[in-house]
Amino acid sequence: MYEIAMHAPGKNALSTDLMTWIVRELEVAAGRPVLVTGMGDCFCAGLNLKEVASLDRAGMERFLLRLEEMVDALYTYPGPTVACINGHAIAGGCIVAMACDLRVAAANPEIRIGLNETALGLRFPPKLFAMVQKRVPANAIERVILEAGLYAPDEAKALGLVDEVAFDVAGASRAHLSRLASFPREAYARNKEALRAGVLDVSEADARRFREEVVPLWCSSETKERLLGALRK
Question: What is the per-residue pLDDT for 233?
Answer without folding.
Answer: 67
